[in-house]
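Ops channel
N.P.: pipeline sanity check, posting one input/output pair.
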């Protein structure tokens, strides 16, 4: 198979591209997404939330080629046998490309690793993890213009379907390429530059450009509802190609109206009476969770 833009052999199919043209196709897609949604501009300080997986490394690489002020932040939840491996990959990647990396941990910030919390309390791992991770990303991104995450189109289609299946319009409204319903002082703007890049495209970019990562899944992932939705969507996509893109396009079509209606219903964002960080409630979910994990 030939590249659709030159005579070289295609290394990617759908659309057929050689390495050089695939790279320009992929990077242009990210550039278009950045521009279309006004995600970041020249001179912005960009913090990339990284895990060490292919999505975050590809995002870090693409953004650091385009913007001079890109740094990386990773969260160590304290999941034995998992995070050590991904952080080893991350450290060597950032060292190779001269990118500043900071790692912040649950143990240092909340007093306990996720493993210890799960051994002491009956609680869903992803619930604790999600609340604490969001808190740390926002806390440690103060002073940056944006925080970028590596969510790709597959992740987004899954999140949209999950929120539809849970009948959760307020969470659905937050699934845009620029997260959140409205801007709030103290909450760093969160962007998803890989919004229109499929997982297959991200994987291809990572392989073709020697972005090496070790495939290792969090041991708690089997409990994630997302996994079930992911498998179902993959089945539908295999029989009806383009399904994921249509889900994302449908969402973008209604997201303006959805944000407007959910924004009206959303309460005023004030400050948590315990930690002082932005919160819609008197005490934020992170402080409530900290109280719960410290209780006897
Ligand atoms: Fe955290 Fe759950 Fe993801 Fe594991 S699968 S890293 S516990 S959110």
């Amino acid at each position: 198979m030939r590249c659709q833009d030159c005579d070289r052999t295609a290394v990617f199919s759908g659309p057929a591209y050689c390495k050089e043209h695939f790279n320009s196709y992929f990077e242009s897609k990210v550039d278009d997404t950045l521009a279309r949604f006004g995600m970041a501009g020249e001179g912005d300080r960009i913090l990339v939330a990284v895990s060490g997986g292919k999505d975050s490394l590809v995002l870090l690489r693409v953004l650091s080629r385009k913007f001079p002020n890109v740094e990386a932040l990773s969260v160590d939840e304290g999941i034995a046998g998992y995070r050590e491996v991904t952080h080893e990959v991350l450290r060597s990647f950032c060292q190779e490309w001269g990118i500043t990396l900071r790692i912040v941990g649950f143990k240092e910030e909340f007093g306990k690793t996720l493993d210890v919390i799960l051994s002491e309390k009956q609680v869903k791992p992803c619930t604790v993890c999600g609340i604490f991770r969001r808190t740390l990303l926002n806390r440690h991104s103060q002073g940056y213009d944006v925080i970028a995450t590596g969510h790709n189109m597959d992740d987004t289609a899954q999140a949209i379907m999950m929120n539809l299946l849970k009948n959760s319009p307020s969470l659905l409204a937050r699934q845009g390429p620029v997260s959140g319903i409205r801007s709030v002082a103290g909450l760093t703007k969160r962007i998803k530059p890989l919004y229109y890049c499929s997982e297959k495209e991200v994987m291809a970019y990572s392989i073709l450009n020697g972005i090496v990562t070790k495939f290792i899944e969090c041991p708690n992932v089997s409990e994630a509802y997302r996994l079930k939705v992911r498998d179902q969507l993959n089945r539908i996509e295999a029989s009806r190609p383009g399904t994921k893109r249509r889900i994302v396009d449908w969402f973008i079509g209604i997201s303006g109206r959805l944000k407007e209606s959910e924004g009206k219903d959303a309460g005023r964002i004030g400050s948590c009476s315990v930690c002082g960080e932005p919160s819609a409630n008197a005490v934020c979910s992170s402080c409530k969770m900290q109280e719960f994990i410290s209780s006897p």
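N.P.: looks fine end to end. The pocket of iron/sulfur cluster is lined by residues 77, 125-126, 129-130, 218, 220-221, 224 (CB under 6 Å).
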